[in-house]
Every structure is written in structure tokens, then in C-alpha cells.
Specification:
Distance between the termini of chain B: 38 Å
Distance between the termini of chain A: 30 Å
Structural class of chain B: mainly alpha
Number of helices of chain B: 11
Order of helices and strands of chain B: HHHHHHHHHHEEEH
Radius of gyration of chain A: 24 Å
Number of strands of chain A: 3
Number of strands of chain B: 3
Oligomer: heterodimer
Largest sheet of chain A: 3 strands, antiparallel
Radius of gyration of chain B: 29 Å
Helix content of chain A: 55-70%
Strand order of the largest sheet of chain A: 1-2-3
């Protein structure tokens, strides 16, 4: 590797020494837990009580625990950024003098869940609104106040859009319920409560035009691959 | 009560109004104000006491008291018009209709039903089973209005239907004629309602003759009827229909749709992302604009769903329910 993925700074060295002191038994579980939560922004992976339990379990002070957690997250994020293979990750960690058993734990956790995590990062969007749900309804309008004896079919499309802003505030509120969101790590699980629903109505002609535009987009996507 | 005053008897030839049973035939108590002398015998109408065709028992009292007749669309006098002297052709017709249908004497049953309906064989006029009060009032008031004033009032009503502002013209009319405000009010509102209801019905099922007959039954003068028909069936109709289309109540529809396909080469979290994504901007007819990103998987779902709706729409349009003639 040309440049070291994990730079050798003071805080890193300190963290490494702390890490080396940590009990190896619980380490892999900690790693996988952090991996799962890595792609969520603006949120810490553990609630208050859990942090306290961790402090006791690893016999670390609050500051030290935070440092350790942050360092592990940083290492993992770097692995994601460079798309490291488990072997190279292990090498990198060895070069910062992390213990053998810890580096192995890192490597195996990364091998197991690495690709998934990278995929989740790929799906992250920067725009404030993202389409989450699609629902529709096909109606046959028989009459209305200005016109009797119609028979016009029309469709109503319901687009559920998630809002980036409300996402992060929602997440901050839901520390305790994160377990439920583990389902496939889908972002949708977190944001169901914050969907903004947009209703759009189409008659036959309008729907057909919309469909043609979607086909044009699909043609573009196909030409990419 | 002489039915001779009632020129508009459907079915023709039914010169004698059946007053014997108007009391029980009236669907509401409104025409109770005009008690009918009983006893006018007409072969088609049963004497009180005979079994009715629909199996219900004849009323104990022939007059007074409401009787819910069978649900046949029939004209009744509107509540605001108690007309003592004029035995409302409404009540007369309603009575005749009910009585006819009650005839249990083996008269041509189909004919009985036919007579029970207004001219043209349809149930009730295009205004429905009960003529709205303002149309009734207008029909009465318009008899005394001159042709010129009528034409101006009609123009105001048509402009209102097309959505134009007509305060000025109404003021002008009020000043130039000697109609009171109240008269003006119900004349214009009656005309507006009449025209609006007529314009609601599609041309394919609503014929001019039927319209004219219905207007005749309201006893609107002949030349005014001609004017009304020219508005409804003439070449001004598309303009009024156009306004109706614009004013429809709809959920917002897509007015403008822009999109772009991006490929993210690198992001802050991934050095090599190479992830395609779609950005859509939808402007809706109610003015709101939505810019949102669609992940490729969701886009496929959207495309699939839209295709599915199109297919269902096609199936629906082919089905025979749409071929039902009305």
C-alpha cells in the first residue's frame, strides 16, 4: 500500500494501546455491532446504558471508551473508503502495532460484513429527499359536480419521500429502538415515520406519457452498463 | 278541478287529471294545500279501495297525509310554492303517475310504467325528480319578462357558466329594467341552475327534443326554450364545457417532469463508488415542486408499477362495463 490507511498519530497510538489492553473475548461482537451501524450518520451506536455496560465490561473510563469506539469506527470507515481486502486491512493494522488477535478479529469481521457495509454506503444519497415507497390506486370516475355520466379511468400514484433532515433528528430520538432497524440494514426501516407523501393523479394519456419518460431513463441506465 | 289549465300532460290525451288520488299520490305534503275533489272517474284510475298493482294496500284515507309512493321519479311541487288555485300540474302528474301504476285492472302494464314517466320515456326530466326551487321560480317569473331582457339575463348566466365575472352586466340590467332585486336574483339563479344541469349531461345521451319537452313542462315560453336549446346544444357548448374541465376537482397532476441520471464516481465515504442514481424533478399542477433522488432499485419498482397500472387501465377500458349505455 502506498500511503498508510491509518495514519500514525498520537490519538491513534493511545487508542492502540488501549485496544491492546481490551479483553479479546468480547471484541468481535463489538466490531460487528459497530460495522452494522457504521453507515448511519449523526448517531452513536450505543445508548447511555450500553455505554456504561461497555465501560464495565472493558474496564475503561468514559473518555477512553469513546476514544476506542471512535478509533475503531475510523478504521472501519477507512476500510470502506479504500475498499480494502481483509488481508490488507490486517496488514495495515499490524503496521500500527495492534495485537495479533485484534487484527485477526478485525480481518474476520471485515471479511464477513465488509461488502455489505460498502454496499450500504453506496446507497447513501446526498439529496435531501429520496423516494422510499410507491403506492397506487386505479379509479374509474363515474361523475363529478360539473359532469355527469363520465367513465374515465384515472390512476393516483402515491410517492413516499424521506426527508434527510427529519431522518437525523428521528434517529437521535430513537436510540433505544435501533435493534428493530437491523433488518437488512435498510434505511427504510428508520424513516417510515418521516415519509412525506405526494399524491399525483394521471389520466390514461398522462400516464402513458409518464411511462414513456421512464422508459427513456431506463434506456440511459442500460447504456451505462 | 279542471285539468284543462294544465297543458303539459305527458302521454297526450290524458285530458282528465286524476284528482281522486292526488292526495295519496303526492310524495310530500306540499301539494296538500290544494285539496282535490274526489270522484272524477277515469277508467284507468282505480276507485279507492282497489288493490294497487304493486301490492301495497290502498290508503284508508284517500286524501291528506303523506304516502310514500314507490320510488318513481316524479315531479312534485317545490316547498316554496304553495299554489292554492293552480292545481299544480306537478301534483296532477304525480298523482296520475302513481295512480296509473296502481292500476290493477290488467291495463297494459308496460304502458302504465311508460305513463308513469315523463315525456321521452326517461324517468323524470333532466333536472331530476324534484325541480329545484329556483328553476321553478324562474319558470314562473320568466313569463312576464320581455324577450330582450330575457336574452340579456341568459347572456349573464352563460358568462357565469364560462367563469367570467358578470357583476357589471347584472348591475346594468338591474338599472335598465324594472325588475326587483329579488326577481332578478331568482331569474338568474334559475337560469344558471337550469343550464348547468343541462350541460352536465353528455351530448351522446341527452337529446335536444327531450330537453325541449322538459322545458315545456316547466311552462317556459316557446321562444325562450329555443334560446335555451341553442346555448346547450349550439356551438357555444364547448366553451362552457371547457370551463367545467378546468374547474374539475382533481388531485395535482404532473405538469413538468425533468430527470437526470448520475453516476457517482467518488464520495466522501467511498473512493470508488461508481453508483448510478436518478434525480427527478416533478412540478405538479398545484404549484408544488418535488426534487428527489430515486435509487436504481426503486426506479425499477416505479417503472414496474406504472406499467402495471397502464395494463390494468387498458383492461378496464376494454371491459364491458364501459360499454353500458346510459
Amino acid at each position: 500500500m502506498a500511503a498508510p490507511v491509518v495514519p500514525e498519530s498520537d490519538s491513534i497510538r493511545r487508542a492502540v494501546s488501549l485496544l491492546n489492553a481490551v479483553d479479546s473475548g468480547r471484541f468481535p461482537r463489538l466490531l460487528s455491532r459497530l460495522l452494522q451501524k457504521l453507515h448511519l450518520k449523526g448517531e452513536s451506536s450505543f445508548s447511555e446504558e450500553e455505554e456504561e455496560k461497555l465501560q464495565i465490561a472493558f474496564s475503561l473510563e468514559k473518555q477512553d471508551l469513546h476514544l476506542v469506539l471512535e478509533t475503531i469506527s475510523f478504521i472501519l470507515e477507512q476500510a470502506v473508503y479504500h475498499n480494502l481486502k481483509p488481508a490488507s486491512l490486517q496488514q495495515q493494522l499490524q503496521s500500527i502495532h495492534l495485537d495479533q488477535d485484534k487484527t485477526e478479529a478485525f480481518a474476520s469481521a471485515w471479511a464477513a460484513a465488509g461488502q455489505e457495509t460498502i454496499e450500504k454506503f453506496r446507497q447513501r444519497v446526498l439529496t435531501p429527499q429520496k423516494l422510499e415507497t410507491i403506492g397506487w390506486q386505479l379509479n374509474l370516475q363515474m361523475a363529478e359536480s360539473m359532469q355527469a355520466k363520465l367513465k374515465s379511468p384515472q390512476a393516483v400514484l402515491e410517492l413516499g419521500m424521506s426527508n434527510e433532515d427529519s431522518k437525523s433528528s428521528a434517529n437521535a430520538r430513537r436510540r433505544g429502538r435501533r435493534r428493530a432497524e437491523e433488518l437488512g440494514g435498510r434505511l427504510a426501516g428508520e424513516t417510515e415515520a418521516n415519509l412525506k407523501k405526494v399524491f399525483v393523479e394521471f389520466n390514461h394519456q398522462e400516464l402513458f406519457e409518464f411511462y414513456n419518460k421512464l422508459e427513456a431513463i431506463q434506456a440511459q441506465l442500460d447504456s451505462l452498463t | 278541478m279542471a285539468a284543462g289549465t294544465d297543458p303539459a300532460q305527458p302521454g297526450g290525451g290524458r285530458g282528465r287529471a286524476p284528482h281522486a288520488h292526488s292526495g295519496r299520490a303526492a310524495m310530500s305534503s306540499r301539494s296538500q294545500g290544494a285539496p282535490q275533489p274526489g270522484g272524477r272517474r277515469d277508467p284507468l284510475f282505480p276507485v279507492p279501495g282497489q288493490p294497487r298493482r304493486d301490492g301495497t294496500a290502498p290508503p284508508a284515507a284517500a286524501e291528506g297525509g303523506e304516502r310514500p309512493t314507490r320510488a318513481r321519479p316524479q315531479h312534485t311541487a317545490p316547498p316554496s310554492a304553495p299554489r292554492a288555485g293552480r292545481c299544480v300540474s306537478r301534483a296532477g302528474r304525480a298523482a296520475m303517475a302513481a295512480a296509473v301504476s296502481a292500476a290493477a285492472l290488467g291495463k297494459a302494464a308496460g304502458v302504465a310504467y311508460g305513463y308513469g314517466e315523463s315525456g321521452g320515456g326517461r324517468g323524470g326530466s333532466f333536472l331530476g325528480p324534484r325541480v329545484p326551487a329556483e328553476v321553478e321560480a324562474m319558470a314562473r317569473g320568466v313569463q312576464d319578462v320581455g324577450k330582450d331582457t330575457f336574452r340579456r339575463l341568459l347572456k349573464v348566466a352563460v358568462n357565469a357558466l364560462e367563469g367570467k365575472d358578470c357583476k357589471e352586466s347584472v348591475k346594468l340590467i338591474a338599472e335598465s329594467t324594472n325588475l326587483s332585486e329579488e326577481q332578478l336574483a331568482f331569474l338568474i339563479s334559475g337560469m344558471y341552475t337550469l343550464l348547468r344541469e343541462a350541460l352536465r349531461l353528455p351530448l351522446s345521451t341527452f337529446k335536444q327534443e327531450v330537453f325541449k319537452e322538459d322545458l315545456k313542462e316547466l311552462r317556459i315560453p316557446e321562444d325562450f326554450i329555443v334560446d335555451f336549446s341553442s346555448v346547450v346544444f349550439g356551438n357555444r357548448r364547448p366553451a362552457s364545457e371547457g370551463t367545467a374541465l378546468v374547474q374539475r376537482s382533481r388531485l395535482p397532476s404532473v405538469q413538468d417532469f425533468k430527470w437526470r441520471v448520475d453516476v457517482a464516481i467518488s464520495t466522501s465515504s467511498l473512493a470508488r463508488a461508481l453508483q448510478p442514481s436518478i434525480l427527478m424533478m416533478m412540478k405538479l399542477s398545484d404549484g408544488t415542486a418535488h426534487r428527489f433522488e430515486v435509487p436504481v432499485a426503486k426506479f425499477q419498482e416505479l417503472r414496474y408499477n406504472v406499467a402495471l397500472i397502464l395494463k390494468e387501465m387498458n383492461d378496464l377500458e376494454k371491459r364491458s362495463i364501459l360499454k353500458i349505455q346510459d
